[in-house]
């Protein structure tokens, strides 16, 4: 088990703008103490640094993810938290979250066990592939 606080484990740093959507009971209290200057807000005109989405339905993830991606800061992240173990075909799995992310131009770069009931994947903008050929323009 990690000795880091939950907020540190999720990458919440000083001055970040963070949105938490559908948190389970007690989750926000577990984030305390938050680093200085962290604002828990719903949206930001300049983009959110971190969004934490809890979802138990594939359809909800597919509906919300494009909007959440548009609301991200360029260097922002989205944590998609989903039930750790389930037998339902309606509940997102790790592979489903990855595929949904790829559809909107995001990729996962970290996995965390939030608690006994929830697992999370952190999504970020996919890095652009480097251009391998030289430009053909001449001066």
Q: What would you say about this model in short?
A:
The chain has 139 residues and is α/β, with parallel strands linked by helices. 23% of the residues lie in helices and 30% in strands.
Task: Describe what this molecule looks like in 3D.
There is one protein chain. Helix 3 links the parallel strand 3 (48-54) and strand 4. Helix 3 (58-70) packs across helix 4 (94-103). The protein is of the alpha/beta class and 139 residues long. The protein has four helices and six strands, in the order H-E-H-E-E-H-E-H-E-E. The chain has a single domain, classed as Vaccinia Virus protein VP39 (Rossmann fold), CATH 3.40.50.150.
Please report which band the strand proportion falls in: under 5%, 5-15%, 15-25%, 25-35%, 35-45% or over 45%.
25-35%
CATH class descriptor:
Alpha Beta
Domain count: the total is 1
Uncertain runs with pLDDT below 50, 5 residues or more? none
Architecture, according to CATH? 3-Layer(aba) Sandwich
Q: How many beta-strand segments?
A: 6
Helix vs. strand class: alpha/beta
Which strand order do you get reading across the main beta sheet? 2-1-3-4-6-5
Largest β sheet strand count, sense and barrel closure: 6 strands, mixed
Based on CA atoms alone, the radius of gyration comes out at: 17 Å
Average pLDDT number: 89
Helix segment count? 4
Terminal CA distance reads: 59 Å
Outline type: globular
CATH superfamily membership: Vaccinia Virus protein VP39
The share of residues in helices is 10-25%
The CATH topology is given as Rossmann fold
Tell me the series of helices and strands, N- to C-terminal. Answer: HEHEEHEHEE
């Amino acid at each position: 088990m990690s000795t880091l606080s939950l907020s540190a484990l999720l990458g919440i740093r000083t001055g970040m703008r963070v949105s938490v959507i559908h948190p389970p009971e007690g989750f926000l209290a577990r984030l305390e103490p938050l680093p200085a200057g962290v604002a828990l807000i719903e949206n930001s005109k300049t983009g959110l640094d971190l969004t934490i989405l809890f979802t138990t339905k594939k359809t909800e993830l597919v509906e919300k993810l494009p909007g959440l991606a548009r609301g991200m800061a360029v260097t922002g992240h989205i944590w998609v938290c989903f039930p750790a173990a389930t037998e339902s075909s309606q509940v997102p799995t790790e592979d489903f979250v990855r595929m949904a992310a790829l559809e909107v131009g995001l990729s996962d770069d970290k996995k965390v066990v939030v608690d006994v009931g929830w697992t999370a994947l952190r999504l970020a903008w996919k890095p652009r592939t480097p251009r391998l050929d030289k430009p053909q323009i001449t001066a």
